[in-house]
Amino acid sequence: MIEFHSVTKRFPDGTVAVDDFSLVLPSHKTTVFVGTSGSGKTTLLRMINRMVDPTSGSIDIDGADIGTLDPVKLRRSIGYVMQNSGLLPHRKVVDNVATVPMLRGMSRKKARDEALQLLDTVGLDRSLAERYPSQLSGGQQQRVGVARGLAVNPNILLMDEPFGAVDPIVRAELQQELLRLQHELGKTVVFVTHDIDEAFLLGDQVVILRTGGKVAQVGSPGEILANPADDFVSTFVGAERGKRSLHLENHGAGDVLVDGDGRLAGVLVPGSKAGPLAGSGASAQGGDPR
Amino acid sequence: MTWIWANLDLIWDRTLDHVVLSVPAIVLSFIIALPIGWLAHRYRASRGVILTVVGLLYAIPSLPLFIILPIIVGTSTRSPLNLVIALTLYGVALMVRVVADGLASVDLDVRQSASAVGFSTWTEFWQVELPLSGPVLLAGLRVVAVSTVSLATVGAVIGVQSLGSLFTDGFQRGIQAEIIAGIVATVVLALVFDALLVYAGRLLMPWTRSRAATTVTDNAAGSVSTAATPASENRSREIAR
Questions:
Q1: Residue B218's closest CA among A148, A142, A91, A160?
Q2: Which of A82, A187, B47, B195 could bond to A86 as cystine, CB 3.0-4.6 Å?
Q3: Residue A284 in contact with residue A265, Cβ under 8 Å?
Q4: CA atoms of A162 and A185, how far apart (whole Å)
Q5: pLDDT at B216
């Protein structure tokens, strides 16, 4: 469990990236920070492994204030996956995956053996193990990045727009793969994205942030869609919607529309002519809060 | 030509002298330049000062340096050590900027991700920044090696034996073949050093050769994703920035 207690981050140039942020990120669930550029979502993520230290407030992991922990040790215990994979270009795929276990003192042979198994876990052929990252496609590189993130079997996995730089087809595939992995492994995942579809697909808890690191709304995708807190949220949630053939499902907090892929797609606006074909355009815009 | 055949032993001995003078200087200048270059790279404030001061070393004329150094260090003017120190100073003057530039050439994303997964500053330098700046360091080291081999000949003027002694001796005694032998042997030695460095670079940096060597397919990640070529992704990456 990760807890933010009144965390504020002010950079030396005066920019407030995060403003009095408090939140509990439950264990074994995926929490997604979603927002536009400058909403502080990446700063929030990087505070969890002390790449950034808060100006005020504190962050606890399983009850321990991370401000008192050694940053290097802390980082070695937390999985980290970033955009453009962040792999070491001078190390082979298998050595990249074995990197952090070896930093923690595991023997090279054991680390490499486990790395090969992790390639299986993330759906990569072992024949790629002896290649360099530059010899892989972007999608494959991201899978290696995920394998590296899982290598020390961390409780927490931080993912900073990991699928932002791959094309939509590969992205959809990687998203499904992450859902499968998360179903099997049950990590505490913290995921940053600017894509609301991705947030709703992957998140158990979605945190919508507005500029300056202020929380616009926190909730499950269903709760947010059913009851957007304000115009900002409904615009943000609706702006990128456009999937067709929606059907109604009850997610506890109210009726929501679900598209053919199983994605939550919008809310039903009373009075509109929402048919199976014509409906999505109007309702999915979601511009009218109830 | 007859002079050369008659004096192969002499040429070989002077070549060995030359190697003994230049190899320590090349190695030392690399080792000394590393921490200074790192300092210049690491702190913005120190960068300008260090690079200017170190760069100015190269402007010191060699002959006065050979005379001043013994006074500072306490060696004799004609000692090979005197020459090695001077050559090292010139090597450092060239190499510090190369080290600073090499370290700066390492991709910021890679450095950030290395610290995010738990490299300490120290391990990150040795395991990430240093190897990745390798291609730039190698390019600089090749310049240092060739320039050191060439500069070492100047030692002959102060009486430290090297291939340069073949020119001075040849001039004094009017043996043209000896002068030419000295020049050719110096050039050949420089080329040999250069070739050895390039070879060492290939051994130590195998990843630099593998780029674009194999065609990329996404079949391991499922047939649908064959659309993802590295080229198209690089492009989208640029757009994303």
A1: A142
A2: A82
A3: yes
A4: 18
A5: 46
Domain A2-218, CATH = 3.40.50.300
ipTM of the complex as predicted: 0.76
Cβ separation A103–B221 shorter than 8 A: no
CA distance B43 to chain A (A): 17
pLDDT at A78: 95
Q: What is the pLDDT of residue A111?
A: 95
**Alpha carbon A3 to its chain's center:** 17
Name the residue of chain B whose CA is nearest to A131's CA: B210
Compute the distance between CA of residue B24 and CA of residue B21 in angstroms, rounded to an integer.
6
B223 touches chain A (CB under 8 A): no
Q: Which CATH number fits domain B2-215: 1.10.3720.10, 3.40.50.300, 1.10.418.60, 3.40.718.10?
A: 1.10.3720.10
Q: Do A132 and B123 touch (CB under 8 A)?
A: no
**Half-sphere exposure in the Cβ direction for B83 (13 Å, CA):** 27
Q: What is the mean pLDDT of chain B?
A: 85
How would you write B199-237 as a 3-class SS string? HHHHHHCCHHHHCCCCCCCCHHHCHHHHHCCHHHHHHHH
